[in-house]
Sequence to fold (438 residues):
Amino acid sequence: MSGQAITGGHPPVPLALHAYRAVMSLARPAMWLLLRRRAERGKEDRARRAERYGIAGIARPEGDLLWLHAASVGETNAVLPLIERLLAARRNLTVLLTTGTVTSAGLAAKRLPARALHQYLPLDSAPYVRRFLDHWRPTVAVLTEQEIWPNLILEAHARGIRLALINARMSGRSLARWQGKPSIAKALFGRLDAVLAQNDQLARALASLGASNAAAVGNLKLDAPLLPVDQAAATALNGALAGRPRFLAASTHPGEDTIVADAHRLMRASLPDLCTIIAPRHPHRGTQIAAELAAAGHKVAVRSRGELPQPDVDMYIADTIGELGTLYSVAPIAFIGGSLVDRGGQNPIEAARLGASVLVGPWRSSFLDIYEPLLAAGGAVEVRSSKDMARQGLAWIRDPASRNAVAAIAAATLNRLSGGLERTSQAIMAMLAEPRTA
Fold:
């Protein structure tokens, strides 16, 4: 099959992809061990582990079913308004949301509307995927952002299930990897019936990989609801920090915490009562960060221990899940992590929507379509070092009017860029209206 076209005019499945499918089927015992170890670390739900093998935890409702997969919390937040809109438009529709993390499952349990169900995504082994599809029989399957799972795509396509990739994005590094495997890329992207990219540049890149129906519709995260703010928690934090200037480093990655600490030290020379809050991208790093900062001479408090920043605390580690909205509401200046190290940057939309003025490093390829217009309009500021961060942080703390002006520009820019929700929902509705038959 490696060199012969398959029926229907779709690209052939290359030998490398057949090899992947075989390896993933043979690796099922190793997958069982991997899931057990992840469960021991709290990264898998023991009670629902069977879902990872394609064994459904609930019955399939009658009628049309849209299967929508979102990797984790950020992607789930982005698709919640889409789910609500689709369910409102079609009264006989059920949405099945799959995710891959415990935190996203918790979010789904709290925020999914009626007629929307949640399951964990099955591992990408053909027997598990077939079991999943046998039970759920989706009318349309929708993947988000970068969630390209070969067995899911090939098995769904073989059954005549229409496939879409929405809010599609791809880092430069991922694009280069796919470009180095052109036959695999064409075999997978060429089986997608619709690819809705976040911007024109991404649409062209995805088209080059074989996505013949790639179109730019905008970023769904621009239309996502605000992050929740726990008013009681915000009141407690504001009380603990009363009268003190605050600086937030959000979603930091390894290598950035020391840069932030150096910037904090520089700012504190002029602002001795400054409190810097570090919210690591991966909360499990909180204990390590706290130990390193304490060893460097900082007085540290850790949120996961139930601690608040007392007057003698100069660095506060917010190593909890689901509290970024609360932190943005408390700290008016936010450095967005993953951007002073080569991680592609993290999403600035949530901070700007909640009124925080944004600082970002030079590594921001994952959100270029957001950062470029923000920076061009003056709605965010780039920093490349601890000195840059300290200089801009001090300027905004000393001149709230200039900080507020930047925040206002950011809000206006994001409003101008929004609209992806409407265009995405229209495209999916069209797919639901004309489901492909096997």
Observations:
- The two ends are 20 Å apart (CA to CA).
- The mean pLDDT is 94.
- The chain has two domains: 7-218+419-433, 231-417.
